[in-house]
Design brief:
Elements: E1 2-3, E2 6-8, E3 11-13, E4 18-21, E5 32-35, H1 39-56, H2 61-77, H3 79-90, H4 94-117, E6 120-123, E7 130-138, E8 141-145, H5 153-164, E9 168-172, H6 179-190, E10 198-200, H7 205-214, E11 218-224, H8 227-237, E12 243-247, E13 252-256, H9 262-274, E14 284-290, H10 294-307, H11 326-341, E15 345-348, E16 367-370, H12 377-380, E17 387-393, H13 396-403, E18 408-409, E19 411-415, H14 419-428, E20 433-436, E21 452-453, H15 467-470, E22 471-479
Parallel strand pairs: 1-5, 8-9, 8-11, 9-10, 11-12, 13-14, 13-19, 14-17, 16-17, 19-20
Antiparallel strand pairs: 2-3, 4-5, 6-7, 7-22, 15-16, 18-21
Helix pairs in contact: 1-7, 2-4, 2-6, 3-4, 4-5, 9-10
């Protein structure tokens, strides 16, 4: 078992208490351990960030861009090592972990380019001999709390715009998957990031959450995770001048109309529903099919599910790995059992693999449920596992109504060859991300990302939109007459 240190104040820190990291493909032996920081360690990290911010906000944007670009290069050079650790702690396949590492580097490179451009606009002024502009400035210390399902790309999505804008940051990675975040921090540290600009808080939430949230130097909190935790954080910040950005749950739907390419639709639903063992906020979990093609589409989707090979993420030939933990596995199996009690039919999966070699892992077979009714819990509640629920409808209008029958509003997709139906769906689906003839998951670094309603806060992530959260606006008028 490896012992890892965490980054605080530009130094690599160890403590007397540790958190074990497990491989969800085989829980018997921990693969690593990371420091369990205390509340006092968190306060010291804020001290470091305060000093780091004073340096970083005055650092040339071109130097910021150089450091971020160099860090991206280091991630690419270390991709094999990082992907192996990421797959080991989270359960992704090697291909998924490799892709995540490369995408993390993309975020750094993209925002390095934006850092070079500057953020501001010249505006006209009614007063003569007056030149007026507005500019964007960093806001201070940002706390990023990131989830276990995308333990490298989510820190990159949040920290790249944070650093490009000139802020300092505390990063609290998920306890289940801290190794990827430490790789990200090491790349930035090795690229020359000044001390204190980034501090990684590995620790148990119950012991450090108050110190993280209550510190008066906190300017903004960006969180990705469950609605329960997100709403709790929002409530803790109520009454304080602290910005909150939440990327929360989803119950994403894909519509398959009668004129769709059914092969393409089945492949896309399988990819969006079962990749990463369904542990994506944008994963397809509801499939709404026009009744005339319901049986034919279902047959093709079942074929795609049967072709998946479940196993350890690093094993040759694996196309779907385990869930992140026994807790997550058991929760998904419980959701399936409850759906069956409420009338659903298991068309594929619904259980754990029978292979003895997988008996010590957190596996759930790719699951397809039929006969799911709108009042079933699984139609409305996020499962976060490899489970797809099917429902037949009789019209486009009924399909859109079914898509919008949710408290969430993150992602939706439609498969059709009718251009009018595609445009109508894009207008009528109440989601932040809409796809036509492609998966609900997979958005590039420059695409604004975020959901409506209970799926998140008004602030978008990614693209230039992200800078609205990580900067403040100052207007400057200069009279030269």
């Amino acid at each position: 078992m490896r012992t890892l240190e965490t980054l605080s104040g530009g130094e690599w820190l160890a403590t007397g208490e540790w958190i074990d990291v497990h491989d969800p493909s085989d829980l018997r032996t921990p693969v690593a351990r990371v420091p369990a920081l205390s509340a006092a360690d968190v306060t010291r990290a804020y001290d470091h960030a305060e000093r780091g911010f004073a340096v970083w906000k005055r650092t040339s944007p071109f130097e910021r861009a150089r450091i971020m670009t160099d860090a991206a290069r280091l991630l690419r050079e270390r991709v094999a090592e990082i992907a192996e650790d990421l797959a080991t702690e989270m359960g992704k396949t090697r291909a998924e972990a490799t892709g995540e590492t490369i995408k993390a580097a993309d975020f750094l490179e993209y925002y390095a380019g934006i850092a070079r451009q500057g953020y501001g606009t010249l505006v006209h002024d009614v007063r003569p001999d007056t030149r007026t502009s507005f500019q964007r400035e960093p806001i201070g210390i940002v706390l990023a709390i990131t989830p276990w399902n995308d333990p490298l790309i989510t820190p990159a999505r949040k920290l790249a715009p944070t650093l490009a804008a000139g802020n300092a940051a505390l990063l609290k990675p998920a306890t289940d998957t801290p190794q990827a975040a430490l790789h990200f921090a090491r790349a930035l540290h090795d690229a020359g990031l000044p001390a204190g600009v980034l501090n990684v808080i590995t620790g148990r939430g119950a012991q450090i959450s108050e110190a993280l949230i209550a510190d008066p130097r906190l300017a903004a909190l960006t969180f990705t995770g469950s609605n329960e935790v997100g709403e709790g954080l929002r409530a803790q910040l109520a009454g304080r001048n602290v910005r909150f950005q939440g990327e929360l749950g989803g119950k994403n739907a894909t519509v398959v109309l009668a004129d769709a390419d059914l092969d393409a639709a089945a492949k896309a639903v399988a990819a969006a529903g079962f990749a990463q063992a369904g542990q994506r906020c944008t994963a397809t979990s509801r499939v709404i099919v026009e009744r005339s093609v319901y049986e034919e589409f279902t047959s093709r989707l079942l074929g795609e599910a049967a072709a998946l090979r479940v196993g350890p993420g690093l094993a040759e030939g694996t196309t779907m790995g385990p869930l992140v933990s026994a807790r997550q596995r058991d929760g998904v199996l419980s959701d399936i059992e409850r759906a069956v009690k409420q009338g659903a039919t298991v068309l594929a999966g619904g259980d754990q693999p029978k292979d003895e070699a997988l008996s010590h892992g957190c596996y759930v077979n790719p699951t397809v449920l039929g006969d799911v009714t709108p009042d079933a819990d699984i139609w409305h509640e996020e499962v976060f596992g490899p489970v797809v629920a099917l429902r037949a409808v009789d019209s486009f209008e009924e399909a859109v109504e079914a898509v919008n029958d949710s408290d969430f509003g993150l992602a939706a997709a439609v498969f059709t060859q009718n251009l009018g139906a595609a445009h109508r769906f894009a207008e009528e689906a109440e989601c932040g991300q809409v796809a036509v003839n492609t998966t609900t998951s997979g958005w590039d670094v420059h695409h604004p990302f975020g959901g409506f309603r209970d799926s998140g806060s008004p602030f978008k992530e990614q693209g230039e939109e992200a800078l609205r959260f990580y900067t403040r606006v100052k207007t400057v008028a200069i009279h030269f007459g």
